[in-house]
Amino acid sequence: MVEGRVPARIGHLFAERGIGFLKPTYPAAGPGAVPSRSARRQPRYVWRPGRLLALAAVPLALVTVVPAVRLGWDAVLLWHAERAAKAAKADKNFFALEQAVATASGALDSVQGNLRLLFYLKWIPGVAPVYRNLLPLATAGADGTRAAHTVLPSLAPVAAAFGYRTAFSAQAALPDARQKLAVAAADLPAIAGALRAAYPDLQAAQAQLNAVPTQGIPRFLAAREAKVLAPARRYLNLAVQNLPTLMQAAPVVQEILGYPTPQRYLVFFQNSGEMRPTGGFMTAYGILTFDHGAMGRLQAHDIYSLIGAVQYRPPAPAVFTHAFGILHWHIRDANTSPDVPTTVANIYRFYDSIPHVQPVSGVIFTDVWLVDALLKDVGGVTLPPPYNIRLTAANANYEMEYLAEKAHIPGITANTRKAFIGEMFHELLHKVFSARGSRLLAVARTLGEALHRKWVMVYFNNPQAEALVARYNWGGIVDRHTGRADYLQIVDENLMGHKDNYYLNESVSSLVVREPDGRYLETTRVTWVNPAVYNGWMVVPYRALIRLYVPKGSVLMGIYGIDGFLQNHTNPVLNKSVFGGHIDMPDRPSYYDPPARQSMTVTYLLPKGIDPRRFIIQEQPGIKPQQWQITVGSVTRRFTLTHDMTLTFPRPAADQSAP
C-alpha cells in the first residue's frame, strides 16, 4: 500500500497525542551517511493505512456490530419475557407477571436505543421502510409496557382476591364474589392514581402505533398483525379516549358501590318476550345493596306483590284500560316511556307511596338477553332445590317462562312463583365472579356488550353518576337534542301479556324524498313476521301499541295498518313528535300455514330545517336485532340494528346548491 505524505504540522500534532496511524520518517543522506541534526528535527510524516483502518473500525463497530448484537440479546429477553408472562398467567402468579412485564419493558427500551444507533439504515434502499416502521413499533412497545408496569402494582390487591400470588401474598381466592367486588371497590383510588401516572405513556404508545401503516409492518411481524398489533391499536385508542373520564369517575363509582355510606338500588327484571318500552314487562323486582363495595344478596319478588302495597293509584292510560280492563295504573306498567329517566320518575311515584319504604339510590333494568349471554359464557347454572333445573343459553327463556307460568313445584305459591329469578341470578353471579382466563374475558365482553346494546340500563339519583351514564349511553336516554339531523325510534308495547316477542322478526324501511318547497317527506314502514305457531300461552295473536318518535314539529300525512288508538301528539319532555297506533296481528294456527305477517306504514313531513343526510336511529331496549333499510334520495343503506346508530348520506345531486 502506498504511504502518503502528511504536512509536518499535522504530523507533530498527532504524534504529540500518541496517535499512531502516522509514521515519522527522516530524509536519507546517502549510503552510510548520518542525517544532520537539523534534518532529524524535521521529520516527514506518512500515513499508516492499516492502523488508520483499524481505528476507523472502532466507531463503525459501535454503530453496527454492537447494536446488532444487543438487538439479538434483546430479542432473547423478549422471548423469555413472553414465555414467563404466559406461565405466570397459567400459574396465577401475579408477582411473576409483574417481573415479566418489567423485563419486557427494559428489553424494549434497549431495542429502541439500539435502533436509534442504527439511524443510517433509513437511507439504505430496501432496508429504509422496515427501519422507519420498526422504530415506532419498538417505541410504542416500550411506552406501553412501561404503562403496564406502572399500573400493575395497583392491581395487586384485586389479583390477590382472585387467588393470584403477589409479592406479599399467597392467599387463596376469596370464596365469595361479593368479597371480591368489595376489594376491587376499595382499590379504586389506587388504580385511578396509577392510571393517571401511566396515561402519558399510553398516549405516546398510541401515537407511535397509529403512525405505522398496516402495510408497513416488517415481514417477520406480519403474522402478528391481526393477532396482536390490530387489537393493541384498538384497545389503546379506547383507553386513551375513555381513561380521563374513568379516572375522574373513580370517586363517583366508589359512591355507587357504597362508599362512604351504603346504597340501595331497585332492580327490575324485564321479560323481553313481552316487549315494553324500556325492554320488556317488569316481571320481578329486587333490592340490591352495596356497603363499602360489599354486594348484598339479591332477592327477587313477583312484581304483582307490590300492587297491594302501593298507595299511588292514578287512572290507567286508555290503552291499558282497553287491553287489560283495568281502571288504575299499576307499577308493573310504569315503564310506558322508552326514556329511562322518564320511566324512573313514574316508578318513583309508585314506589315512594309505599308506607315506610326505604329510599333507593337508583334503578337498574336488566333483560333476558343478558341472562342468555352470561349463561353461554359460564356454561349454564343449576337451580337449587326445590327447582333442580339446569338452565343454559339454549333453554333458559322457555324454562323460566314455564317456571313462572305453568310449573307446579311443592312449596312454591303464587306469591313466590318468581323467586327462582333471584336464585338464578345468585348462581349466575357466583359463576361470573369466579370466572378466569378465557371465560373471564368472555364475561367482560358480554358486560360491555350488555351496556352497549341496552341489555342493562342504569339510573342514579346522584347527578355526577347519571352524567357518567349519559356520556357512555348506558342509561336508555332518548336523545333530546339532535340539531338538524333526522331522528327515528320505533317502540313496541306488547299488550296481550304473552311472549310473542321471543319469536317475532321485525324489519323497518324508511324512504326520504325532497319536496318542491325544500322540506322532506318521510315514509316509514314497519313489518312484523311471526313464524311461531299459536299455543295459547307463549304465542298468541300479537296486539301492541306501536309508536314512532320523530323530530319535533313533524306533520302526520297518513298512517295505515292500525285498528285504533291513533298516536299523533308532541312529547315536550323528549322534544319529539309521536305517531302510531294499535295493531292486531293474526296468529299462525299451524305449521302448515304461512307465518303470520302485519305491517304499519306512516308518512310524515319533516320540519323545515331538518336535513336527513344525518340520520340518528335509537334502538328500543330489549328488541331483537332488526333489519333496516334507509333511503335518502338515491342512496340506500341496509344494516342490522343492534344498537344506537348515526348514519350519514351524501348530498343529492339536486341539492348541491343547498346550504
UniProtKB/TrEMBL annotation:
The chain crosses the membrane at residues 52-73. It holds the Pfam family DUF4012. Keywords: Membrane, Transmembrane, Transmembrane helix. InterPro entries: DUF4012 (IPR025101). It comes from the Bacteria. This is DUF4012 domain-containing protein. It comes from Candidatus Hydrogenisulfobacillus filiaventi.
